[in-house]
């Protein structure tokens, strides 16, 4: 099918902004009916821009298939734009990319050991720093643990009179114990996460999965999985989680 250069440029812009399916829908509204596969082919004909100098590099992993296949995305922290995608998240692959880009002076990463090792091997001249999201996330977890240790010194939440019918939990719902609530009477995230993790691990054990497989799927250490597996009752874990 022949198109003018102007129409081809317009369709390419639509594909860049909306992708295949949404772009095809818009083209139909604009009386320029085009299939999603055609728009994707136009995208594939575009030249791939070579990344320019990246002195400050951000690195993180993402799931191609959760629990099975992971890849790595590299971002220019100055422009906040992706510069490359690596096929896996191994230290060897990351180090090889860094050797081809000696201009990298700062590597912004999470606490993954593979990225640390890759940066040390591929860019020993670069300074490694923690990204802001993981700093705040780790800080929140640390504060939560400290508050849990000093739970006894905090003011108890206000309680409603027990003789009111609307304070009773629905049938089949276990009421939260006092230690599982924060100072405002809301469920604590640590206790909820412990219950969810205990359920996930024991469901997989009943399914016949090994501890190694469970640890890989849930991205936990084998010791953590073993500790949850040995606890037949989640209350055993909640005592440690609440006062940790």
Automatic annotation (TrEMBL):
It holds the Pfam family DDE_Tnp_ISL3. It comes from the Bacteria. Residues 57-156 form the Transposase IS204/IS1001/IS1096/IS1165 DDE domain. PANTHER family: TRANSPOSASE FOR INSERTION SEQUENCE ELEMENT IS1557. This is Transposase IS204/IS1001/IS1096/IS1165 DDE domain-containing protein. InterPro entries: Transpos_ISL3, Transposase_DDE.
């Amino acid at each position: 099918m022949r198109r003018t250069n102007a129409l081809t440029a317009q369709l390419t812009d639509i594909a860049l902004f909306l992708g295949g399916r949404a772009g095809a829908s818009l083209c139909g509204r604009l009386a320029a009916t085009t299939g999603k596969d055609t728009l994707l082919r136009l995208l594939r004909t575009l030249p791939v821009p070579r990344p320019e100098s990246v002195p400050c590099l951000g690195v993180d992993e993402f799931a191609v298939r959760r629990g099975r296949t992971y890849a790595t995305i590299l971002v220019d922290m100055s422009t906040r734009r992706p510069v490359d995608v690596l096929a896996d998240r191994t230290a060897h692959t990351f180090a090889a990319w860094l050797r081809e880009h000696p201009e990298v002076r700062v590597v912004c990463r999470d606490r993954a050991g593979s990225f640390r090792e890759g940066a040390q091997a591929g860019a020993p001249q670069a300074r490694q720093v923690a990204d802001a999201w993981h700093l705040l996330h780790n800080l929140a977890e640390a504060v939560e643990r400290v508050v849990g240790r000093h739970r006894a010194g905090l003011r108890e939440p206000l309680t409603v009179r027990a003789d009111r019918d609307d304070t009773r939990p629905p049938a089949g719902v276990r009421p939260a114990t006092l230690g599982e609530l924060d100072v405002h009477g809301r469920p604590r995230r640590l206790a909820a996460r412990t219950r969810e993790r205990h359920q996930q691990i024991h469901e997989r054990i009943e399914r016949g999965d090994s501890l190694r497989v469970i640890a890989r799927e849930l991205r936990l250490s084998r010791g953590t999985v073993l500790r949850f597996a040995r606890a037949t009752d989640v209350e055993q874990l909640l005592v440690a989680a609440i006062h940790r």
